[in-house]
Amino acid sequence: MRMPIVLAAAVVAAGCFGGLKNEVPAPRLYRIEAPRIEAGATLPADLSIVVERTAPGLDGDGIASRWPGSRLDYIAHARWAGELTDLLQSALVEGFQDSGRLRSVQGDVGRFRTTHTLVIEVRQFEADYAAGAIPVAKVALAATLGRNSDRQVLVSFTAEAAEAATENRQTTLVAALDTAFAHAATEIAERSFAALAAEPPAAP
Q: What is the model's pTM?
């Protein structure tokens, strides 16, 4: 299991009131690792990856947790290093690029023309405490791959993954989310590559 990188350690902010100091730890910041996608033959496609939206409560930089009764909360003293959509898009672009399976890959603000677009909707990305004190990381990403020239959808599906944390600690539950994301991202990549490979050759 690959541990996420802690970008910033907790620091202490002190304030004074009536001669007393209240020490409040700053939140720890975490990034999301790029998935390791298996290398293979390069397909003649230029892909743009867009993480378009999240389910309510998953936007922003809070690390979400779900509790019995469908109650949503956030892990105390922990944050993502940026907006969740931005981190996921960056990780997916890096993973697809590193695989070498496509001619080029860029985000939604890329400078170059692309032949296809992969749109992702984040339906789940949370630590689920519904079953007990040890959380289960749950990730669900709805993916739609389409051709840019005629806006034809090639494939649309939802990739889901779950990974139990080893204990109820920040680092282990974030690592579990990282692993679950890697599984879902790998499924998205393989199904996207299969759809692109099945396309007829472009007319000269």
A: 0.85
Whole-number Cα distances in Å, 7 to 27, 49, 82: 11, 25, 11
Within 8 A by CB and 6+ apart from 28, the residues are: 6, 8, 9, 10, 77, 78, 79, 170
Mutual angle of helices 170-197 and 84-99, in 10-degree steps: 50
Which neighbouring-strand residues pair with 161?
A: 139
Confirm if 47 and 116 have CB atoms less than 8 A apart: yes
Query: Which sign, positive or negative, has the C-alpha torsion 68, 74, 78, 80?
Result: positive
141/191 Cα distance (integer angstroms): 13
pLDDT tens digits for range 84-111: 999 999 999 999 999 999 999 999 877 8
Geometric angle at alpha carbon 114, from 113 and 118, rounded to 5°: 145
Superfamily in which the 33-197 domain is placed by CATH: ABC-type transport auxiliary lipoprotein component (3.40.50.10610)
Residue 12 and residue 63 in contact, taking contact as beta carbons nearer than 8 Å: no
Would the pLDDT of 27 be above 70? yes
The domain spans of the chain are: 33-197
